[in-house]
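cron nightly-structures :: item 1 of 1
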Amino acid sequence: MDKILCLLEENSRLTNRQLAAMTDRSEAEVAAALEAYEKAGVVLGYPALIDWDQTDKEYVQAIIELKVTPERDTGFDKVAEAVCKFDEVKSIYLMSGAYDLSLIVEGKTMKDIAFFVAKQLASIDSVTSTATHFIMKKYKDKGVIFPAPEDERDNVN
């Protein structure tokens, strides 16, 4: 695997100059590699990881498990494509194990997510059951450990 990809995954703000120095390549080689990765769909974006709990944004996230009946010829893809169209759905994964699809969804309140599950997801013919798990607190996301708020640190002894 290309070291450029690993470095970008850790920090997408690295410049071509920094990536060149870290990989013993020229800036032109790095720029060409990045352009090729983007055109091939290997690099899909450069998102920042935000600790929204440190802001005034009101939101809640949940992990929703879906059991679905796969469709003939398209399997799980057709259901996943339909679910992807909802703005509330931030991520969707095909899973092995007890359920078929795992979704990460966002809403302003727990009630908003509950209505989304009841009115949008449960109404899809292929969906046979759902299980919703609300995310109460993040400790680590995408390899980044979230710091505890100051008042929590004071109480740890």
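cron nightly-structures :: done
Helices lie at 3-10, 16-23, 27-40, 77-84, 110-121, 150-154.
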